[in-house]
Design a protein that fits this description.
Cofactor: FMNH2
Bound molecules: flavin mononucleotide, the ligand C=C(O[C@@H]1CC(C(=O)O)=C[C@@H](OP(=O)(O)O)[C@H]1O)C(=O)O
Number of domains: 1
CATH architecture: 4-Layer Sandwich
InterPro entries: Chorismate_synth, Chorismate_synth_AroC_sf, Chorismate_synthase_CS
Keywords: Amino-acid biosynthesis, Aromatic amino acid biosynthesis, FAD, Flavoprotein, FMN, Lyase, NADP
Strand content: 15-25%
GO molecular function: chorismate synthase activity; FMN binding
Low-confidence stretches: none
Protein name: Chorismate synthase
Order of helices and strands: EEEHEEEEHHEEHEHEHEEEEEEEH
Radius of gyration: 21 Å
Mean pLDDT: 97
CATH superfamily: Chorismate synthase AroC
Number of strands: 18
Length: 359
């Protein structure tokens, strides 16, 4: 039963959306990482439900309690346990779908796989679980800070509204200045309007979160199987509601000729760099020192407030409609989740790289 991620810097999450709480065990984090609890709080606030009019209205403070693995502000090299209490479950919103299946949520597959289904709030399949990933991601970011590595995600598309600028033409930190987390204020406004309109129509809409990882050393990733982009892809595709992943030139690259697409090597001081970066910072599964960038596509989420046709456990036709609090569009809250999964992946590969050759 796989509830874990990572090989050396490893996380295991636990908990259900309407249970007592959720949390994460981090195993393999080296001793001596400076832990800033305020930074954990900032990350949790960026993901928490109820943060604006364009997210689910469930109210969770998502305070993280560190139960182990940190002493006097530093990791001890032993497992960290981070715990988050659930506070605002409204399980009766799910009573009507106890025995029926929401189209495109995980109700049917969980029921068939386990035969036991915690239908309250989606149970383990709820994106509530991602709060634990963000808490662990905050620790991974603090580990990466010791290496000067920075991870920054932002919303680049909602429905048809798409950022037209390249990441290097924008100040990505400005994404945190608006509730949709898009670094371009004008595009952000259009995105917010579209999400709000969609919510009023009792529907949902999808979008794209883009992510940039800077200052990655050369040499992270394995030449076969655990290629860096393959594991990043797994990390991103393991997030609820993700339907697509691309890095570097991605799907657009197929339109180019090799002569345009190849990243020519040049010497800059005593460093070897590339003139362009269609490779997205990874060649042959191994980081080449350039920026790693990727796009993660999120579907319009399953629970819509309008009536939908479905079936119950016995196969009878039923009508289901969402009740309670749901996200009309997940991308504003998915930004810190994408960052967390990217940070966890890179942290793991930094540790793995230490075993690749004699220094
Ligand atoms: C940040 C975030 C918030 C989400 N909020 C909701 C929600 O309010 N309602 C819902 O039906 N699905 C929501 N989802 C998506 C479901 O968790 C997801 O669709 C479900 O687990 C089925 O998995 P799949 O879509 O990956 O197949 C959310 C996903 C993310 C990443
Ligand atoms: C609770 C969170 O988001 C939830 C994700 C979610 C889903 O189906 O994924 C469904 C909703 O659950 P509930 O009906 O229990 O409020 C969201 O609010 C969270 O992100 O912390």
């Amino acid at each position: 039963m796989s509830n874990s991620f990572g090989k050396i810097f490893k996380i295991t999450t636990y908990g259900e959306s309407h249970g007592v709480g959720i949390g994460v065990i981090i195993d393999g984090c080296p001793a001596g990482v400076d832990v800033d609890e305020d930074l954990i709080r900032v990350e949790m606030q960026r993901r928490k439900p109820g943060q604006s009019k364009i997210t689910t209205q469930r109210k969770e403070e998502d305070e993280v309690e560190i139960l182990s693995g940190v002493f006097e502000g530093k990791t001890t090299g032993t497992p960290l346990a981070l715990s988050i209490r659930n506070q605002d479950q409204k399980s009766k919103d799910y009573s009507h779908i106890k025995d029926s299946y929401r189209p495109s949520h995980a109700d049917y597959t969980y029921d068939k796989k386990y035969g036991v289904r915690d239908y309250r709030g989606g149970g383990r399949s709820s994106a509530r679980e991602t709060a634990a990933r963000v808490a662990a991601g905050a620790i991974a970011k603090m580990f990466l800070a010791h290496y000067g590595i920075k991870v920054q995600a932002y919303v680049s598309q909602v429905g048809d509204f798409k950022l037209k600028k390249h990441y290097s033409q924008m100040d990505l930190s400005r994404a945190e200045e608006n509730i949709v987390r898009c670094p371009d204020a004008e595009t952000a406004e259009k995105m917010i309007e579209l999400i709000d309109e969609t919510r009023k129509n009792r529907d949902t809409i999808g979008g794209i979160v883009s992510c940039l990882i800077e200052n990655v050393p050369v040499g992270l990733g394995e030449p076969v199987f655990d290629k860096l982009h393959a594991v990043l892809g797994q990390a991103m595709l393991s997030i609820n509601a993700v339907k697509g992943f691309e890095y570097g030139s991605g799907f657009e690259g197929v339109k180019m000729y090799g002569s345009e697409h190849n990243d020519v090597f040049v010497k800059e001081g005593d460093k070897i760099v590339t003139r362009t970066n269609h490779s997205g910072g990874i060649q042959g599964g191994i980081s080449n020192g350039e920026d790693i960038y990727m796009n993660v596509a999120f579907k319009p989420i399953a629970t819509i407030m309008n009536d939908q046709e479905s079936i119950d456990k016995e196969g009878n036709k039923v009508t289901v409609s969402g009740k309670g609090r749901h996200d009309p569009c997940v991308v504003p809250r998915a930004v810190p989740i994408v960052e967390a999964m990217a940070a966890l992946t890179i942290a793991d590969f930094i540790l793995r790289a230490k075993t690749s050759k004699i220094e």
